[in-house]
Amino acid sequence: MPRKFLKRYSPSPKTIRDNKALSYLGEDIHRPSLWHMNRNSVSKAFAIGLFCTWIPFPLQTIIAALLAIFYRAHLPISVALVFITNPITIPPMFYFAYKLGSVMLGVELESVPMDLSWEWFSSTLHQIWQPLLFGCLILAIVSSAVGYFTINTIWRKNIKHRWKCRVDEREAARAKQSMLSEIKKAMKDS
């Protein structure tokens, strides 16, 4: 995974430390393991962030931060991924989750007129909560697993590629050095 790209868009530990809104996390937020980018911490962060994206109620960010602290995942990435859900993406995501949950539970899809307001949601929640939560749970598990294994695989391939480039550079340098020494030896002999 391009570490420079991720570091460029991640807030610094000082920025987080100075943020008063995050003071509820206490001293745990300052642990270096939460800020260190490695394959394991970033893969866990993607799993946590993508899982929390599918939580159909507020406080997703806080849950993602607490899970990142508990599992020692990269904190900024865990929290940032939660923002996949925003006012534009929430309706299609949760409608898809509701449809998936209805199909998986064998529940008939309710033909509830959609208003996309808080009043509509709170009045129809008793009709749709089971399929919605079940669909969200399935999608959370699947997306977090896919995120974890995708990042892990990309990171490993990147490491293998960089290692191969290093080996190739060293072999080229050795070949060049060998050629130069042969030329010097040939010049001495003549």
Fold and architecture overview:
The protein is an all-alpha fold. The protein has one domain (3-189). It contains seven helices and no strands. The chain has helices at 3-9, 13-18, 39-53, 60-71, 75-81, 90-105, 118-189.
Chain-wise SSE layout:
Blueprint: H1 3-9, H2 13-18, H3 39-53, H4 60-71, H5 75-81, H6 90-105, H7 118-189
Helix pairs in contact: 3-4, 3-5, 3-7, 4-5, 6-7
Short précis:
Helices cover 71% and strands 0% of the residues.
Give keywords.
mainly alpha, 190 residues
Mean pLDDT: 85
What's the tally of helices? 7
Category from helices, strands and their pairing: mainly alpha
SSE run: HHHHHHH
Helix content: over 70%
Domain DUF2062: 24-164
InterPro entries: DUF2062
Keywords: Membrane, Transmembrane, Transmembrane helix
Pfam families: DUF2062
